[in-house]
Each structure stands twice: as C-alpha cells, then as structure tokens.
Amino acid sequence: MKRYDLIVIGAGPSGLSAAIEGAKRGLSVAVFDENSRPGGQLFKQIHKFFGSKEHHAKIRGIDIGEALLKEAAEAGVTVYLDATVTGMYLDKEILVRQQEGMVHYKANAIIVATGAAENMVPFEGWTLPGVIGAGAAQAMMNLYGIRPGNRVLMLGSGNVGLVVSFQLLQAGCEVVALVDAAPRIGGYGVHAAKVARTGVPFYLSHTITRVEGQDQVTGVVISEVDASFAPIPGSEKHLDADTVCIAVGLSPMSQLLKMAGCDTVDDPARGGQVPLIDEEGQTSIPGVFAAGDVSGIEEASSAMIEGRMAGICAADYLGFCPEGEKDAAMVQLESDLDQLRQGMFAPGSRGKAITTTEEGIAISQSLLTRGYLAIDEVDRFPGVTHQPGIHPVIECTQNIPCNPCQDACVKHCIAIGERITALPAVDEKAKCTGCGMCVASCSGQAIFLVDEGYAPGMAAITLPYEFTLLPAEGDVGVALGRDGGVLCPAEIVKVRTAKAFDHTALVTMAVPSAYVDTARFYKSDDAAVTEVEMEG
User: Fold this and answer.
1) What is this structure's pTM?
2) How far is it, in rounded angstroms, from Cα 422 to Cα 411?
3) Which of 350, 363, 380, 536 is the most exposed place for a label (fewest CB within 10 A)?
4) Tens digits of per-residue pLDDT, 232-261?
5) CA 206, CA 202: separation in Å to the nearest integer?
6) Are 26 and 38 in contact (CB under 8 A)?
7) Number of helices and strands in the chain (H, E)
8) What residues does 335 pair with on adjacent strands?
9) Domains and CATH numbers, the chain
C-alpha cells in the first residue's frame, strides 16, 4: 500500500488548487481522477472568466487549466489519471481502480474535490439518442472537436445553458430555442444578451412535453407551464431539432464522503446532499476536507479559492504550516471569496426577486424575460453614453463581480470603483483612443465602441466577435438588433485581431446613423456561411 501525506480526489479546479497549496508546503501529494486528462471542467470552458485579476478574470478556462497543471507539476504533485476512487474508509484509506486492477492508498489527510454531476429531467422520449447533458455537449465540442448536432434545443437558462448555447453557435450548430420552465432567465444577463442577438429565441415559462423520434431525436414539442409548472393544455409548439441539451443544474458528488462516514445534510441552496464542514473546509472526520462543488454548487473561480483554502488547512492540520501562516492566508482568501459571493447572483440572493441594482436603477425586465435590453431601458445605465467621437458603450446592467474593463482602459474611460459588483460607468471627460482593449477584455461581450459621426449619415460600431470565419473589410451583410432581428445593411470597415485580444476579434461595421443605438451584431447575408468556434 502506497502512502502520501495528502491525497486529493478530483483533478478539477478545486482539487488541483488544493494539491498545489499542499505540495508548496512540503507535503507529498497525490491526486486521483477518473478521467483521462486532468483539469475537470476547465478544459471545457473556452469562455473568459468573470471576477478580478486575482480571480483569473478575462482568462479562458482552458488557459487557467493549463496554468494549474504547470504549477502542480512544478510543485511536485503526482497526478493519477484513469484512476477511479471506488471506496473511501474511516482510516483515510482509499480504494482505486487502475488499469483493471484495484489498488489501496493511504494518507494522513484527504481532500475530496469530486465536483458535481449534471441533473436530468425525465420527459417522454428523454432516453432517445440525441438527448444529452450540456456538459457532454461541451466535452464533445471543446475536448474532441465533435459537433453534438445540427439543430439543437437547449433546456435551461442558467449560466451553463447560456454559455453552452453560445458555444454551440460557435461550433456551427443552429440553436433552435432556449427553453426554461422558470419565468425569468437564471444566468447572467450578458450571457443571455450575446445569445439573443444572434437570433436565438427564448421560451420562458415553457418546458419539454415530449421528444419525437424512433431511433433518434427528430423533433421536440414544448408547452407553456402555469404557476405550478404544469403544462397548459393546448399550448404545445413543435420545433424541428435533432438534439436536446439539458442544463437544469448540478448535484454535488458527495458519495465518497458519505461512505467514509462524514456527516452530510440535504441543502437545496447548495445543490443537494453536501457535507457538514467548518470554516476551514474540514468535515466531521478530522483530517478529511471537502472543497469545490462537492460542498456546494458555485462558479469555478470560487471552487479554486476553496481548494486553496483546503490545501492550506490540510497542511496546517499535518503540521506543515509555520505559525500564523494559515491564519494570514485564510484572511486574504476569505476576502477574495467574499468578493465573488456579492451582487445579484450571490448565494444569498438565490430565489429572491431583485428589482433594482445596488445603485438603485430599475432592473431590465426585458433582459430577465426575453434575454435582451429593450431600447427604452438602455439609457438608464451608467455605461451607456452619447457623445461626439468614438467612445465605449457598456451594456452590463447587473451587479456581477467583475472589473477587467476598468483595468483594460489606460485612459480611464471606464470606472467601476472599489466595489467589484458596481455597474461600470463611462467617464465622458476621458478621451477614448479606440484601442478596443475594453471590448476584448469584457468576459460578457457587453462592450461596444461607437462612433456616431463616422461619416455623413453613417455610424460605426465595433463588436466583439468570436467565430472562426471572420468577415473581411468590404464585406456587406446585415446588422442585427439586440433581439436578433435584421435591422439594416451593414458594411465591414475594419477587422482587428491581436494576441492581446486573446482570440476575440474586433469587427467594425458601418450602419445608417439611425441604427447606432440598436445594431449589436453582424451577420453575412450569405446563408451558406458556417460560423465555427475560433481556434487557438
């Protein structure tokens, strides 16, 4: 039986972060993961993270994963892949299936970072080939380069459903609809807006009644639901689709903790069965810690901080931390975690009907119910201004913990302030140079550069664009509105790519001046054009 000071179960963002902190303090650390490659969800996440610089803001998940793997290797962490932990026992012993054999390992401390599993919803036809979890669709696209389907219906409007819907579009799929039984969109408004402006319709207060097909999905029937979420007879709608993606939440994978005898509790606010842990992440069994989604569903940035906390506390438990080091580190990490848990989407805000922002501005009801800002709502937000010359327009209207746009502007045109959840504001006295760094750095693709006087009768709008087949200067297509509807002809007058933009191209289109406040997406008028995800 092989022994380690610390065993970490799970090589995702939380597990790797925990392993790194333990190894940095001199522990012998082994990480076990059932998958063939480490990184957990990070290598599926090709979008840019929210938060601040300390939280990896504006860095893509896949790049964060690579950085964690490099750091773990440099720290001396041993990572076992294709290694499924099938048992965990009271004396900190685990049983691992490796290469068709069963192997025992023992440690002085264990951190469980097994993450979460996708929830599924049963409906007529839900077992047909073509009905898949959103995470599976992400893996197919972003890990293996396989398109999940041609015409895809997404069930669920939380961040996972919104993000994967956009990635399906990037992969060249048609997203026929985004459906949710809830009356309001569950994820970030900026994620919903970038999906809506491509033309994807949202069906809220709707659910899937049945999936059609014999050997595979050939169509979907959705129905409107009442206040009790029961389908309303006579409200059925048929949609042609060959794939259904399910994004209806996650459940913590706490089975190993329960097997080992750790006290658990059923906590719907944290996703289901979770371990009882103290402020250090330690369970009811001394020396056994839990971190990341297994202890409560949150964003990956929070999971990484929780992992670091667990790694430091495990090292302290084993006597590897100098006096005072743990306490000092925990103060900073708890502050970082607290920042990410603020705003409209904080854990404490779940289930609450928030009607105004922190600044007292009325929340956009159109954004919550249709996925986009209504034209009569836009001007009330501090990121939207009208002024001569080129300037940023920021359609970030919810209190999300994120501030890379503030740091991106060297001319200080954009201000958020010390409160990371504050709405970004444009300083009309500052002179915008049109560099576009704010557009490229916005994790929500919610910033545009606008030149209202580009030419007589014409305005220019610079958009973030993350599809491989870029338009070229001189191309003529159509401008789409926030709702994805066709507004007017548009000519591409500039296309910029740069390493600093991190695979976000800046596409500038010229439109008639009357559409300067409404045109927010460009589409080629050639229906044969297929847009696929930007490659590295």
Assistant:
1) 0.92
2) 20
3) 536
4) 999 999 999 999 999 999 999 999 999 999
5) 9
6) no
7) 11, 28
8) none
9) 2-117+250-340 (3.50.50.60), 120-246 (3.50.50.60), 375-524 (no CATH)
